[in-house]
Design a protein that fits this description.
By secondary structure, the chain is an alpha/beta fold. The chain folds into 2 domains: 196 residues, 3-Layer(aba) Sandwich (Isopropylmalate Dehydrogenase); 149 residues, Isopropylmalate Dehydrogenase. Helix content is 43%, strand content 18%. Strands 2-1-3-12-11-4-5-10-8-9 form a 10-stranded mixed beta sheet, with helices on both faces. Strand 11 and strand 12 form a beta hairpin. Helix 1 crosses helix 10 and helix 10 crosses helix 11. The longest helix has 21 residues. The structure holds 3-isopropylmalic acid (IPM) and manganese (II) ion (MN). The site of 3-isopropylmalic acid has 4 residues, from helix 4.
Length: 364
């Protein structure tokens, strides 16, 4: 039994998760996958009404009684910045110890990229973003706040343990991609800033070199500074196979990655605990888009691909081939639908949310 907790959230979140759940229902019926779904109330809406984001008991319940979490989007304009981010998204990532943020950058057939003369052959890599350390830890403080002599610090944390477990996952991902497609999978690129961040990123570089040399001699290693990486992602995205990077840099370069792969309408992500101890969280990269909420305008593809990823990743973690197959079926159905929108912008498709999802369901 696969127990899925759904955090529909705010804005377009609930609308798009509904479509991902329809895809799940269809493949599960086909393959005989047993699952249960329960909706949870965590949202900016709840915060406005109850001044509450999530209680300790609710968090423990998610941890103990679900196998995967499917998240739409949280946040509304009347909730102050940081409340939902720190109070829900980051809290779940930290407390569930979801140390990998898995973000494929793949240009599906027919999806428009702003890059000239680039196709799916050129844009097909995955970014492994460390998800529990770095500038996201919330370590820092103020001195003399609000005075002309104010000081604010925000510390960048890198632990050998945190870096090693992220690197290991990245090397393994590279190896398994290599198995699936020997022509493509071959190289792991570390993206950091060793020339300036001479402590934290020195640790990253040493750990990368040591682990690569000792345990993954079959994987080619490459290092790029993050600024150069931004340039290459635009000019020569075909250079990349698997990128491993820090939390903050990963946040930034994966928005760039989403842009070159067709935008927020198609970008999916997973916050993973590869050990399988905690439920992983799967979510489209896009936000709650309050400006188009409730108008049946949101593109459900990113949420449907996030459902595909939920099944593929949970299946891999549990060694359940049927789940992986269910995820693969959804992803394949999406790739048969995207060519119909060739030449269109994927952020806002000229077709209602449900009809786009219907096309995917028909392919299933
Ligand atoms: C993301 C988001 C989050 C992040 C925010 C909402 C906390 O931008 O998932 O990329 O910075 O990680
Ligand atoms: Mn982000």
């Amino acid at each position: 039994m696969l127990r899925i907790a759904v955090i529909g959230g705010d804005g377009i979140g609930p609308e798009v998760t509904v479509q991902g759940l329809r895809a799940l229902e269809k493949v599960a019926g086909k393959l005989g996958v047993q699952y249960s779904v329960r909706q949870t109330p965590f949202s900016g809406e709840r915060y406005i009404k109850e001044k509450l984001v999530i209680t300790d008991e609710e968090l423990a319940d998610l941890r103990n009684n679900s196998d995967a979490i499917y998240l739409g989007a949280v946040g509304r304009p009347d909730v102050p910045p940081g409340v939902m981010e720190r109070g829900l998204l980051l809290r779940l990532r930290f407390e569930l110890d979801l140390f990998i943020n898995y973000r494929p950058v793949r240009l599906y057939p027919g999806v428009q990229t702003p890059l000239a003369n680039k196709t799916g052959e050129h844009i097909d890599f995955v970014v492994i973003r460390e998800n529990t350390e770095d500038l996201y830890c919330g370590v820092g403080g103020f001195l003399r706040r609000g005075t002309p002599n104010e000081v604010a610090t925000q510390e960048m944390i890198a632990t050998r343990f945190g870096v090693d477990r992220c690197l290991r996952y990245a090397f393994e991902t590279c190896r398994s991609r290599n198995k699936q497609n020997p022509a493509k999978g071959k190289k792991l690129t570390l993206v950091a800033k060793t020339n300036v961040l001479t402590f934290a990123h020195d640790l990253w570089m040493r750990a990368f070199t040591e682990m690569g040399t000792k345990e993954y001699p079959d994987i080619q290693r490459e290092y790029h500074h993050v600024d150069a990486c931004c340039m290459y992602m635009v000019a020569k995205p075909e250079m990349y196979d698997v990128i491993v990077t820090t939390n903050m840099f990963g946040d930034i370069i994966t928005d760039l990655g989403a842009a070159i792969a067709g935008g927020m309408g198609v970008a999916a992500s997973g916050n993973l605990d590869p050990t399988g101890k905690s439920p992983s969280i799967f979510e489209p990269i896009h936000g709650s888009a309050p400006d188009i909420a409730g108008q049946n305008k949101a593109n459900p593809i990113a949420a449907m691909l996030s459902m595909a990823m939920l099944l593929q990743q949970t299946g891999t973690a549990r060694k359940d081939a049927k789940l992986v197959q269910a995820g693969d079926l959804i992803e394949a159905a999406v790739t048969r639908v995207t060519p119909r929108f060739a030449g269109k912008t994927f952020d806002r498709l000229p077709m209602p949310t449900k009809e786009v999802a219907d096309l995917v369901l028909a392919e299933l």
